[in-house]
Design goal:
This protein is mainly beta and 279 residues long. Helices cover 11% and strands 31% of the residues. The strands form four sheets. It has a five-stranded antiparallel sheet, with no helix packed on it. It has a four-stranded antiparallel sheet with strand order 1-2-3-4, with no helix packed on it. Strands 5-6-7-8 form a four-stranded antiparallel sheet, with helices on one face. Strand 3 and strand 4 form a beta hairpin.
């Protein structure tokens, strides 16, 4: 009996030991297997950004208009060339039909004159007079292959773009349309009429009469009996658009000794019915 009990106790102990060993985890000698991700044949899809109809937040900058873009009107313009032999007046006449005339008032050389069939408005307050026809010597520095480019100034003036006097003339008169002057040629209903002014000289006061006709013609009379009452006329006075007018290309035989004569031309200021020469 004792023997049977001993065997039963031994079996119980063995079963208990086996149960304890079975509860412990045994490390595996097999390497761990990471899950694999099969490559996809589908292209990756980037998020798309739909174009917006809304304007950019940046402010748009409009290009500034070019300065000096002024249409040059037909008319007569004066220029004074400074030479070692003195000042020489020039007159540039731009006709409505496109023809032009350039006159150099130089009696010693026969008053050279050039004409052409078509002057060109360059759109920047300059004009070009090409293919000049005339027999006068083209010795002035501003001639460029039988043509001249002119910068049109206010108050009925012009200056060759390549002339030595260019900067001085622009500073004195201003570019066409850049200042007060607008260079509108022809008669103005507001300014046409008869005006008088009195010139003060060392010999006394001399009355003048300026008549601006509605058809564009004009007459200037210096009431000076001692000199035969000199009279000058012209075909086209110019309304400069700033309360001044210019009487270019004056025709007459009286001496132009008054200080306000500028190259066979006078510019007047008209205000409240009175007229005053611009010195």
């Amino acid at each position: 009996m004792k023997k049977i009990l001993a065997i039963l106790m031994a079996l119980t102990l063995m079963i208990s030991l086996l149960a304890g060993c079975a509860g412990e985890s045994t490390p595996s000698s097999e390497p761990s297997v990471e899950p694999t991700v099969e490559p996809s044949n589908e292209p990756s899809v980037e998020p798309t950004v739909e174009p917006s109809d809304e304007p950019s937040a940046e402010p748009s900058v409009e290009p500034a208009p070019a300065a000096g873009n002024v249409e040059v009107p037909a008319g007569s313009y004066s220029y004074t060339e400074t030479t070692p032999f003195g000042e020489i007046p020039w007159t540039l006449t731009l006709n409505e039909d496109g023809t032009f005339e350039i006159v150099q008032a130089n009696p010693a050389m026969g008053d050279p004159t050039w004409t052409g069939e078509q002057w060109t408005d360059n759109g920047d307050s300059t004009v070009t007079t090409p293919d000049c026809v005339g027999d006068g010597p083209q010795i002035a520095s501003f001639w460029d292959g039988n043509k001249v480019e002119w910068t049109i100034l206010a108050d009925g003036h012009a200056v060759p773009t390549k002339a030595a006097e260019y900067e001085t003339a622009v500073a004195e008169f201003g570019l066409l349309g850049a200042g007060a002057g607008s260079g509108n040629s022809g008669a103005s209903g507001d300014l046409a009429g008869e005006y008088t002014f009195t010139e003060t000289t060392p010999f006394g006061e001399i009355p003048w009469t300026v008549t601006l006709n509605e058809d564009g013609t004009f007459e200037i009379v210096q009431a000076n009996p001692a000199m035969g009452d000199p009279t000058w006329t012209g075909e086209q006075w110019i309304d400069n658009g700033d309360g001044t007018v210019t009487t270019p290309d004056c025709v007459g035989d009286g001496p132009q000794i008054a200080s306000f004569w500028k190259g066979n031309s006078i510019t007047f200021t008209i205000s409240d019915g009175t007229i005053t020469p611009v010195e």
